[in-house]
Amino acid sequence: MRKRTWRLLAGDRRVDDLDRLYLGLRSRAGGFETVREVGDFVAHRDVRKKGLVTQVGRDVYTSAEIWSMGFRGLTPSSSDLGRAADANLRLATDDQILAGCGCGRVQARKRVDSAMRRINRGERISSTEAQTLTYLGNRFIWRPAFCADQLVDELGRLMIQAKLIRPADLSQLAEGRAFVALHALAVMHGSAITLNSGSTARLFAGYGNKERLLEVKMDIVFPELGKPLKMPICLFLTDLNPENHCAPSLLSAAPVPFDFWTDPVEVGLDGRVAPIV
């Protein structure tokens, strides 16, 4: 692992080396969720049933599912609002919770739990409980599971902890930041996660966003309408643009549809993402 690390720091960036480093580090990645997650995708690239991306994906799905019920001709039950509130409490930032609920995260959690107990007993909920449940239970909140900066930061700190590099080597690791981000994007592309309903949502890479940043999205589909409602949601976000980091065959002059990259991809010897041929 040290020899593979030395090659990476020296600018000799090989996918196999990074695969092996993730596989060797994931069992000792406690506290470094992003490293464990990418390592798990390297080891098991079919359908993920647990992990950071799966949990955030399930929460985003629940948030979107309940929020979109009105568009789909459905009426959420109090149980639905409770499920959405649980998911959104994990997704929302402290600032969002304070702005929408008028309190901090811990107090919002207590209000939601109290409201659900009162509803189940057929009792009236308080005005503050109603405010919190309404805000968290009927709102679409989204965030990526992680971003490229977080991954590179955690990978570096874990490699120091594992005595593969010294703190002084972090600047060399940072020079390979794009390679680390593109590798994660490639190993997640084409996988899938299981949702709470038991169905699966596929993951796909591309740059179908206004900023044209490379990302991995989850494909959410709600079938109730005559035409299925599709909501592609970003779960891994980079700050890399496709022009500098993708093969020409993956570029498009037109706006990129959410399922643009349908073929498997890899990071080539030139450091760019390209289709596997």
Give an overview of the whole structure.
With 277 residues, this protein is an alpha/beta fold. It is built from 12 helices and 8 strands. Helix content is 47%, strand content 13%. The strands form 2 sheets. A 6-stranded mixed sheet has the order 1-3-4-5-6-2. The protein has a two-stranded antiparallel sheet with strand order 7-8.
Amino- and carboxy-terminal Cα gap: 29 Å
| Strand neighbour order, sheet with most strands | 1-3-4-5-6-2
Give the overall form: globular
Strand-pairing-aware structural class: alpha/beta
Q: Work out the strand percent.
A: 5-15%
Major sheet characteristics? 6 strands, mixed
Please tell me the total number of domains.
2
What's the number of extended β-strand segments?
8
Q: In percent, how helical is the residue content? A: 40-55%
Uncertain stretches of 5 or more adjacent residues: none
Mean pLDDT: 92
Helix/strand order, N-terminal first:
HHHEHHHHHEHHHEEEEHEE
Helical run tally: 12
Rg, nearest Å: 21 Å
Record the SSE blueprint.
Blueprint: H1 2-9, H2 15-25, H3 33-43, E1 47-48, H4 52-67, H5 78-91, H6 94-101, H7 105-120, H8 127-137, E2 146-147, H9 148-161, H10 170-175, H11 177-188, E3 192-194, E4 200-206, E5 215-222, E6 229-237, H12 242-245, E7 265-267, E8 273-275
Parallel strand pairs: 1-3, 2-6
Antiparallel strand pairs: 3-4, 4-5, 5-6, 7-8
Helix pairs in contact: 1-2, 2-3, 4-5, 5-7, 5-8, 7-8, 9-11
Pick out its properties.
single chain, 277 residues, alpha/beta, 2 domains, two-stranded antiparallel sheet, 12 helices, globular
Summarize the structure.
The protein folds into two domains: 2-52 and 144-264, no CATH class; 77-137, no CATH class.
